[in-house]
Amino acid sequence: MLQYIGIWLLMVDSSTVFVVDDDDSIRDLLASYLKKNGYNVIAANSGESFLQEFQEWRSAGEDESRVIVVLDIMMPGMDGFDVCRELRTFSKAPVIMLTAVSDEMDRIIGLEMGADDYLGKPFNPRELLARIKAIFRRSEQVAEPKTTGRYAVFNGFCLDKVTRELTSPEGEPVPLTGADYNLLMLFIRNQGKVLSRESIAEVTRKRNSAPMDRFIDVNVSRLRQCLGENARAPELIKTVRGQGYILTTEVEWVDKVPA
Questions:
Q1: Angle at CA of residue 221, ends 181 and 134, nearest 5°
Q2: What is the C-alpha to C-alpha distance for residues 54 and 84, in angstroms, rounded to an integer?
Q3: Which residue from 181, 192, 222, 234 has the highest number of Cβ atoms inside 10 Å of its Cβ?
Q4: Is 89's pLDDT higher than 60?
Q5: Nearest to residue 120, comparing CAs of 110, 59, 251, 82?
Q6: What is the mean pLDDT of residues 209-231?
């Protein structure tokens, strides 16, 4: 059963957090904690019920730019991977996956499927809250890039910074997750500059990149796939050995969609 947890405080945050976990104690704890910190919370005890409720929530015209999904991986029926994969077919809502703290592969798979962040169990609810706030801050920062023009045009691609939609050179829509968009916008705003893995982690994940942190590489690899890059010889986002990554193509900002 899905539980609506309304918030009626003097200062109400318009942001919504979906908490999806089959463990009643964890789900109730997180819902209560997030509610006390000013969020609208919708809790679901299964992947199936969450997807149904999320679709209904979207259909009601809610603001999808102010929503985050906290999603447990290990659930009966549809697990977190299945849910994330299905969610990405119709929504770019940010996803924070809850994983076993020692299972690095779960984290990598989750990121490859479109998750924006991960948190290992057991965890302090304060850390989850900090990560939720960080994702909302990044979304706000990326939503209004300091550039002129609505559209970023590069190598035949066209990125709409208002709708956050990417169109291929053939005029086809290219699905982007929230993390994909944030990373692509970071490269676009720093076109021609080498971005270290540490600086990418600082901006996109609000944390320092460990020496062997593979998650930035996974995100870059996924973005390259979105751009149709050859994994062995990428042309747009190139690896600078020992330094990081660079967007090599020219970027033009325009006010109208190119003909």
A1: 40
A2: 12
A3: 181
A4: yes
A5: 110
A6: 79
- On the CB side of 35, CA atoms within 13 Å amount to 16
**Residues 6 or more apart from 25 whose CB is under 8 A from it?**
none
Mean of all residue pLDDT scores within the chain: 84
C-alpha 253/C-alpha 201 separation (Å) is 26
CA distance 159 to 161: 6
Report the alpha-carbon distance of residue 253 to residue 153 in Å, rounded: 6
Do residues 7 and 36 touch, judged by C-beta distance below 8 A?
no
Task: Check whether 106 has a pLDDT greater than 90.
Answer: no
Give the separation between CA 32 and CA 50, rounded to whole angstroms: 18
Whether a cis peptide bond, with omega within 30° of 0, leads into 169 is: no
Round to whole Å and give the CA distance between 163 and 171: 16
Q: What pTM was computed for the model?
A: 0.60
Q: What is the pLDDT of residue 153?
A: 95
Full strand arrangement of the beta sheet holding 117-121? 3-5, 40-44, 16-20, 67-72, 95-100, 117-121
